[in-house]
Amino acid sequence: MEIEDNLKKLTENFFKSLKCDVSWKDKILFVDKVPLDFERLFGKKSPYSFVFEREDLTMDSELVSGGSYLIKLIANYLESKAQTTLLKIKFNVNMKEEIKKNIDLKDYEIINILEKISNEQIYRFTFITVFQYLNEKEQLINSIYLQNKSVIPFDINNYETIEGNKTDVKLDSVKENYNNAKEKLKDILNGKIQGISLLLSVSLEKEIKRIKSHYSSQVDEINKEISDGEEKIKEFTTKLQGKSSEDNKKLFLEKIERLKQNIEKLKNSEDFQKFEREIVLLINDEKQKHSINILKNLINTTIIYYPIYLLKVSLKKKGELRNSKEINLNYNPLTKELSSLLCESCGKETNEINLCSSNHLICKNCISKCDSCFKIICNSCKKSSCSVCSVKMCSKCESICFKCSKPFCNSHGCKDSVSGKPLCNNCSAYCSSCGKFSPKFNFKKCNSCRIEVCSSCIRSKLMNGKFRNVCVGCSK
Question: Which of 417, 437, 435 has its CA nearest to residue 427?
Fold first, then answer.
């Protein structure tokens, strides 16, 4: 089933690369408007109908199998027209919906999204490998995908693509990715090579046995005659060493010499040498036949690219017109991954929107509240304690007394009625005459009613022959 699926993809993608009209109906692949040069090679005008299983074969269709003429023709055609292809993956993304799916906006809403695009590249290298052995020729086509110089599991056929633009891609990493693809191809082919090598080894051993068996009877006959002669030489040599007459010894020596000459003649006989030569030649010939020849060629380089969206997202609280917050996000439509938000207080990842009173984006673990205004604050917010009541407060609730330079909260301070500068309760006093607050050092006691009033409410009045400080009320 895997082989059939690969053949389907190979055939369909090949005709698509030729920009033919390609469509499927049931289990039949229909191809029309095929280039003239391929029609001439195929020996048949389009349209074509292809099936990939014998039971689907019809009168008008042609069966495509691993060793079929079409597959060999496609391989040869691609090999002669190696090229580089640019493909762009087409995505239709509703960015607002993707953000909502990945981030809990709570009571905030998206008011604007600014998009920038950075293209990410994937390289596909398609190789044709031809194995030649035992008068057989087997062809394999492998496509290897790489990203950032690493092999990745990917199949472009799972995505909708359009023709790419050269200005959108960078070609500086093609060579390095190609070298890595070749190394991966070696790993892929290793199992196939081992399988063929084992097959050839078994077949070679069988052929060598057949050759040796064929010549064994002739060779064995000569070897037996040689062996018999050598045994007789040993026998006569033993007799020579025993007690024999001189005439017998001379006879034994003559026989030994004749046997040696006969053995030498047999060993150097034409038939024997011919058998030996033929055996060596036939075995060497079989070794040559049982060798494997591998040819590898790159037939296509495809640069596939797709957008990475760099987003600036503006948020605001529902019902409010001001105080928007801008967050930066990256979205990968291939993996459907949205980059995480980082808490501006602790730096950890978060998938929800929480904004403190200072507009810091924080995670739920960093949320606290100002004891003065009860709004959300975080560890990044400037916090201080009121010098009057010691309550913890945020920067928006904090005022600094211009007299003592200490912080105070909204409940324990005022403004100088004269200068308008902030004053804490410890440094200010209430003037009962004008009903306003002023610094304590500005208050003077009325010599008439003995009440302390601010400097704005003090008048000078002649009393008992002397000018005295009196309040506005007593000056009348």
Answer: 437
DSSP code, position 381? S
Residue 302 contacts residue 119 (beta carbons within 8 Å): no
Count helices and strands (H / E) in the chain. Answer: 7, 28
* Cis, bond preceding 407 (omega within 30 deg of 0): no
Report d(CA 119, CA 273) in Å as an integer.
74
Nearest alpha-carbon partner for 371 in 396, 401, 394: 394
Q: What is the pLDDT of residue 188?
A: 92
Instruction: Supply φ then ψ for residue 328, to 5 degrees.
Output: -105, 130
* Locus of tokens 């005659």: 225
Are 264 and 290 within 8 A, CB to CB?
no
Strand pairing category for 376-377 and 368-369: antiparallel
Of the chain, the percentage scoring pLDDT greater than 90 comes to 32
Nearest alpha-carbon partner for 227 in 263, 186, 189, 268: 263
**Beta-bridge mates of residue 117:** 309
Q: Give the C-alpha separation, 354 to 441, whole Å.
A: 46
Which tokens belong to 251?
Answer: 């006879």
Residue with token string 């007593």: 474
**Please, are residues 377 and 356 in contact by the beta-carbon 8 Å criterion?**
yes
For strand 83-89 and strand 293-317, is the pairing parallel, antiparallel, or unpaired? parallel
Query: Is the pLDDT confidence value at 159 over 80?
Result: yes
For residue 338, give the 3-state DSSP assignment. Answer: strand
Could you tell me which residues are beta bridge partners of residue 110? 315
| Whether pLDDT at 330 is above 80 | yes
Query: Which segment, 43-47, 86-90, 217-221, is predicted with the most confidence on average?
Result: 86-90
DSSP codes joined into one string, 393-461:
EETTT-EE-TTT--EE-TTSEEE-TTT--EEETTTEEE-TTTS-EEEGGG-EE-TTT--EE-GGGEEEE
pLDDT at 148: 92
Q: What is the pLDDT of residue 368?
A: 83
Whole-structure pTM value: 0.62
Say whether pLDDT at 80 is over 70: no
**Which token pair is 201?**
């080894």
Q: Residues 367, 354: contact at Cβ < 8 Å?
A: yes
Q: What is the DSSP string of 70-101?
A: HHHHHHHHHHHT-EEEEEEE-----HHHHHHH
d(CA 117, CA 169): 12
Rounded CA separation 397/410 (Å)? 6
